[in-house]
Design brief:
The chain is an alpha/beta fold. The chain contains 6 helices and 12 strands. The strands form 3 sheets. The protein has a 7-stranded mixed beta sheet with strand order 6-3-1-7-8-12-11, sandwiched between helices. It has a 3-stranded mixed beta sheet with strand order 2-4-5. A two-stranded parallel sheet has the order 9-10. The model has no long low-confidence stretch (mean pLDDT 96).
Length: 185
């Protein structure tokens, strides 16, 4: 892991629509402001359209790359923002699944908020892991062999890789703080 946040390379992966606005923009901007090198990778290079509360139009952001063109080996940490529509499609995208698997198999941390752990369900990465998430995917996490907890922040180091997870946008201070702490360990 990087010793200084300025040395850290963070990858955020999303679809091009349906991302919960603050769950993407807060980590993106806060980590960049702290000096981290952050890449926003989407399904295509079309603008990323966020939403607020899964239904109201949010901010539009230009991605830096597509997630099928990046490699886990080039990054220190993966961030998976929520948004029901975002992760519902992200979790069935083979390139997104492979990225999550590559991060975990390399022992690199993954930070997932709200519906974000849904990707980890489909990637087969949750057996033996404990995750905080929105309550709507509790059964999915548990059916995938994980344990779901209702906590502002949960950090799980089981199975050789760190999972940083939170429930919802209200938890972003703790979520982004834990990402920063992990990057500078």
């Amino acid at each position: 892991m990087a010793k200084a946040i300025e040395e850290a390379k963070v990858l955020i992966i999303v679809q091009n629509w349906g991302i919960e606005e603050t769950e993407m923009t807060r980590p993106l901007r806060d980590l960049k402001a702290a000096g981290a090198q952050v890449t926003l990778a989407a399904a295509s290079l079309d603008p990323v359209e966020t939403v607020q509360h899964d239904r109201y139009e949010g901010e539009t952001v230009q991605p830096d790359a597509t997630y099928d063109s990046v490699n886990a080996a080039d990054y220190d940490l993966l961030v998976v923002p929520g948004g029901t529509c975002n992760v519902d499609r992200l979790r069935v995208a083979p390139a997104a699944i492979k990225l999550a698997q590559d991060f975990a198999h390399a022992g690199k941390p993954i930070a997932a908020i709200c519906h974000g752990p849904w990707l980890l369900v489909n990637a087969g990465l949750l057996p033996g892991k404990t995750s905080s998430s929105c309550r709507y995917i509790k059964a999915d996490i548990e059916n995938a062999g994980g344990t779901q907890v209702d906590e502002v922040l949960h950090v799980c180091n089981a199975n050789g890789w760190r999972l940083i997870s939170s429930r919802k946008p209200d938890d972003l201070d703790a979520f982004v703080g834990a990402i920063k702490d992990t990057l500078t360990e």
